[in-house]
């Protein structure tokens, strides 16, 4: 079990930076510069390829976006949120009561996401985003009779199938579209309510990551991550895409699993019954995650890291039971997940993926990852990679004490990086990863907690500037 304090540890006495500190900070800056060069290379080479043969199928490589400098009604609010979080975020994150911090983090993340989305205006930025020909809301009426719709779902996946599904419906298991069918059934139909749902739920991922970090590492480290989770460049795509909602479901799955795994039976100061409800809820959300997006089955890798870090397998039976409940329910309703995935792969290569060059996207996707997570995350991930050998060695029971809080965060970040690498190499993530990889982006952002406190505000400012530039200079497709 990993101990954690119930309040923030006292701040260390100020000291002058030594040679090792200065070298680490120079390495952080070099890593961020390398990330910038990767983005520039992806933009330059991608533009050449797109102009030569149009095979990338994006207007502003590596993003699915168009060059469109503009301001909008959300501009003043976005600037205000950025200034307030950069100026007051770190001290508030250190001082607020824990539950107050969770609510404040969620509220601030919503304010940031809403203001960025409203730079494009209410209709363009929110209400119409999920009503285009590719999106879920175009097929709501086809689910009026739910049973036949689910039983026949796989029959409409291929492009040459009769009355085939739009791209996003075909590209996901039916839980994705059923979410919006459910909203419609309770009187919250239409693009506006769909956008509100995705932003409200999607922004809660910031709070979920904090819950998991506190359970797995310690409270001070979680508090240091909070302002970076609020000012995430990924918020540009959380508002408004359904993948922002998927990301939150996956995040709460891992958060509940972390809570379940870090409580144990037995004596001691923190003794408590194993929280069966948290483990079962984590399983249900794991199952839902896999039926929202085929690619999010990779969330099992950070889930395994959670159990490894907690050194506790007790939640596994209830986790599996919860996930199996969702799978059995969809199977009995007539949807075959494996058949759906098989047909999706075929549909994927019937479309743009059939001509999008793997040789570009296998590294161009990583440039997208830099843009959605920002330079501070690149620097934080660099620190995680530098600490990885020592952290991994200390995972062995024979190696003495387990990794400390920073080491445990390092292992979690490594598991997420492995999931991203597999997704990238699979060839099933060619382009549009700025939204597809949102569920992994939140956990990479947590690496910003590894950055030194004295330089936290400049890194936060860099994150905010990146998001503001992206949303003011480009019109994103999602």
If helices are DSSP runs of H or I spanning 4 or more residues, what is the number of helices?
Answer: 22
Compute the CA-based radius of gyration. Answer: 22 Å
Straight-line distance between termini: 41 Å
The coarse silhouette is globular
Strand content: under 5%
- Rounded mean pLDDT is 93
Main sheet record:
2 strands, antiparallel
Spatial strand order of the main sheet: 1-2
Describe the structure.
The protein has a two-stranded antiparallel ribbon. The model is unreliable at 1-14 and 265-273 (pLDDT under 50). It has helices at 19-53, 75-95, 98-117, 122-127, 146-151, 167-170, 175-185, 191-203, 205-216, 219-230, 235-238, 242-261, 276-292, 300-310, 316-333, 337-350, 358-373, 375-393, 405-425, 433-436, 438-445, 456-473; strands at 65-67, 474-476. With 478 residues, it is mainly alpha-helical.
């Amino acid at each position: 079990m990993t101990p954690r304090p119930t309040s923030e540890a006292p701040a260390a006495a100020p000291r002058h930076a030594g040679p090792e500190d200065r070298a680490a900070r120079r390495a952080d800056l070099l890593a961020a510069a390398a990330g910038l060069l990767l983005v520039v290379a992806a933009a330059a080479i991608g533009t050449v390829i797109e102009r030569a043969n149009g095979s990338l199928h994006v207007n502003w490589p590596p993003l699915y976006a168009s060059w469109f400098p503009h301001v909008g009604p959300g501009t003043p609010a976005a600037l205000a949120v950025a200034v307030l979080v950069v100026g007051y975020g770190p001290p508030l994150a250190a001082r607020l009561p824990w539950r107050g911090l969770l609510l404040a983090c969620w509220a601030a993340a919503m304010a940031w996401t809403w203001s960025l989305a409203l730079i494009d205006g209410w209709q363009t930025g929110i209400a119409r985003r999920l009503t285009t020909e590719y999106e879920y809301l175009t097929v709501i009426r086809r689910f009026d009779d739910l049973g036949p719709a689910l039983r026949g779902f796989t029959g409409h996946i291929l492009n040459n199938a009769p009355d085939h599904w739009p791209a996003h419906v075909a590209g996901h298991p039916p839980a994705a579209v059923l979410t919006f069918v459910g909203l419609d059934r309770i009187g919250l139909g239409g693009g506006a309510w769909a956008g509100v749902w995705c932003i409200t739920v999607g922004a809660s991922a910031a709070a979920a990551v904090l819950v998991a970090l506190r359970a797995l590492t310690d409270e001070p480290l979680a508090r240091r991550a909070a302002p970076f989770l609020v000012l995430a460049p990924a918020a540009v795509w959380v508002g408004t895409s359904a993948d922002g909602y998927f990301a939150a479901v996956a995040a709460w799955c891992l958060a509940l699993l972390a809570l379940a795994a870090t409580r144990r039976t037995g004596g001691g100061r923190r003794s408590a019954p194993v929280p069966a409800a948290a483990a079962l809820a984590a399983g249900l959300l794991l199952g839902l995650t896999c039926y929202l997006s085929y690619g999010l089955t990779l969330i099992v890798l950070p889930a395994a890291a959670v159990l490894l870090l907690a050194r506790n397998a007790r939640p596994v039976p209830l986790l599996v039971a919860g996930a199996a409940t969702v799978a059995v329910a969809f199977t009995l309703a007539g949807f075959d997940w494996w058949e759906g995935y098989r047909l999706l792969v075929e549909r994927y290569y019937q479309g743009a993926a059939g001509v999008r060059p793997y040789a570009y996207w296998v590294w161009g996707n990583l440039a997208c990852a830099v843009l959605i997570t920002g330079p501070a995350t690149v620097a934080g991930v660099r620190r995680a990679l530098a600490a990885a050998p020592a952290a991994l060695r200390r995972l062995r029971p024979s190696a003495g004490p387990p990794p400390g809080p920073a080491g445990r965060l390092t292992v979690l970040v490594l598991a997420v990086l492995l999931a991203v690498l597999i997704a990238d190499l699979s060839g099933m993530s060619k382009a549009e990863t700025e939204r597809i990889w949102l569920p992994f982006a939140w956990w990479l952002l947590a690496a910003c907690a590894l950055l030194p406190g004295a330089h936290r505000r400049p890194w936060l400012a860099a994150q905010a500037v990146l998001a503001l530039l992206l949303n003011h200079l480009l019109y994103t497709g999602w």
